[in-house]
Design brief:
Blueprint: E1 6-7, E2 16-18, H1 25-36, E3 42-45, H2 51-63, E4 66-70, E5 73-77, E6 82-87, H3 92-102, E7 106-112, H4 123-131, E8 136-137, E9 146-151, E10 157-161, H5 168-177, E11 184-188, H6 197-209, E12 214-218, E13 221-224, E14 233-235, H7 244-253, E15 256-260, H8 273-279, E16 283-286, E17 290-294, E18 303-305, H9 313-320, E19 327-330, H10 342-352, E20 356-359, E21 364-367, E22 374-376, H11 382-392, E23 398-400, H12 413-422
Parallel strand pairs: 2-15, 3-14, 6-7, 10-11, 18-19, 22-23
Antiparallel strand pairs: 1-23, 3-5, 4-5, 7-9, 8-9, 11-13, 12-13, 15-17, 16-17, 19-21, 20-21
Length: 423
Amino acid sequence: MGVDSWAAPRATRPVRARVELPGSKSQTNRVLILAALADGVSRIARPLRARDTVLMADALRALGTNIVDDGPDWIVTPGALHGAAIDTGLAGTVMRFVPPVAALAAGPVTFDGDEYARERPMATLFDGLRQAGAVLDDDGRGRLPFTIVGAGSLPGGTAHIDASASSQFVSGLLLAGARYDKGIEVVHTGADDVPSHPHIEMTLSVLCSAGVEAAEVARGVWRVTPGPIRARDWVVEPDLSNAAPFLAAALVTGGSVTVPGWPKSTTQAGDELRRLLAVMGADVVCTDDGITVSGSGEIVGLTADLHDVGELTPVLAAVASLASSPSRLRGIGHLRGHETDRLAALATELTRLGGEVLEHSDGLSIMPRPLHGGTWRAYADHRMATAGAVLGLVVDGVWVDDIACTAKTLPDFPGMWTTALGS
C-alpha cells in the first residue's frame, strides 16, 4: 500500500445519515467570475471552500480583484485587471473561465497547472478567444502552459468553436462576454451536441441574475449583450453532484440518507440523481426539508444517456457494478478529457476488483460480477476516489490510493464519510 492509501470503511449496517453538503463548486466559481467583473461590491454567501474554488479566488486576486473573508462568506471588490501568473491546479473551471477574463487585463497573464492539467484540451478555448480578438501564445500546443497578452479590453463578436469536448469552453466565453466591446456570440460547430448542457444553463442563469442579457438564441448558439454586470448578494446552493456517493450509500447498503436544502428548482446536473437512483431501485422522497434516498433491497442495472450529467458517471458505474442486471452508460465520450480519462479509469479499476466492463467510444457496459478487495486507483480524480469509497461499503478490503484528491470539491470527504457511516 502507498503511504497515502485509505482503507475504505466497510458498512456493518445500513447507512442511515443526514448529510449537510457544502456549496456548489460550479455556482461558486461562476459567481466569483461575475463578482470580479461587476460594477460594485458583491457578497457570496456559503461559497464552497475547496481546492478548485480557492484556486479560482486566488487567480482572480492575482489579476487585481479583492476577495476577503467575512465569516463563512466572501466579499468581492473588483479592481483594475493587470498581468499575473495563474496556477490552475487541475481545475477545469479555472483553466477555461479565467483566460477570457485575463484577456481584459492590461499586461501578460501566464497560466500553468498540475502535471495532468497540461494534458487537458484547451485549443477550443484558444480558438474562440483569438476570434474575439485576444492575443495568445501557446507555442501551438493547444494546452497549458500559455500566455494571454491582455490589452485592457477585447473586441468580442462571434466565435465559431467545436465545444463537443466540454461545455466549459462555452461558459468561459459567456461569463466574461458582457465586458467585451461587442459582447460575445458563441456558435457551436461540432456534429455532436455540447455535453453537460445544464452547466451552460447555469451560466446563463447567473448572468441574467446579474442583469446581463444572455440567452441561447438558437440551438447551439449563445449570445451575451455588452453591458454592465450588476453587483449583488449571491447565495450558493449545496453541491448536488457531491451528494452522489452519500445517496448511493443508502442504495447499496439498504439504508436511508437525507440531504437537507435540496433546491426545488435548479440548473445543477446533480439534480438528476433523483431520477437515476430511482431507476436503479432506490426509493426517493422530496420534501420541504430536502431529499431522502432509501435502499429498497435490490439494485437494478441502468441503461441511460449521461451526456448532460457525465460528472455522475463514476459513482453510478460503481453502483452498477453491484446491481442484479447489466448496465449500459452512454453519451459520455467527453469524460476522456476530464481530470483523467474516466472511462478507461473506471474500466480498469472495476476489472481490477473482479468486475466485467466493456469500454466503448462513448461509454461503458457493466456486467455485475462478484467483487473482491484491492487497491482502487483514483488517478488524482475526486469523483473516481468517491466511487471507490462507495464500493468499499460492501466489498471487503478496498483501498483508495489517493483519497486526498477529494479536497478538490469536498474539503473533508473522509470525515464526512466516517460520520455518515457512524450516524
